[in-house]
Amino acid sequence: MKILFLLFPLILLLVQGAAGEKERGDMGERVRGFCSRRSCPYGTRFVGRCAGEYVCCRR
């Protein structure tokens, strides 16, 4: 029974991390692009923002 108190916070952290992953890639999936941190690589162009410091790029 004591182990449940230790597992509960771990499960919450995993669920919270999984929720953030979808947020980052949402814009990129809508425009068939990808999310990159801060700037787009050479040969791609900026098409929007994903979340926070991530930008959406497309070839």
Q: What does this entry look like structurally?
A:
The protein has one helix at residues 2-30, and strands at residues 34-37, 45-51, 54-58. By secondary structure, the protein is α+β, with helices and mostly antiparallel strands. The protein has one domain (2-58). It has a 3-stranded antiparallel beta sheet. The radius of gyration is 17 Å and the shape is rod-shaped. The model is unreliable at 20-24 (pLDDT under 50).
List key phrases describing it.
single chain, alpha+beta, three-stranded antiparallel β-sheet, 1 helix
If you average the pLDDT, what whole number results?
Answer: 77
- Quaternary structure of the protein: single chain
Sum up the overall morphology in one term. Answer: rod-shaped
Cα end-to-end separation = 53 Å
Low-confidence stretches: 20-24
Give a brief description.
Pfam families: Defensin_beta. The protein is α+β, with helices and mostly antiparallel strands and 59 residues long.
List the helices and strands and how they pair.
Blueprint lengths: L1 H29 L3 E4 L7 E7 L2 E5 L1
Antiparallel strand pairs: 1-3, 2-3
InterPro entries: Defensin_beta-like (IPR001855)
GO biological process, one term: defense response
Protein name: Beta-defensin-like domain-containing protein
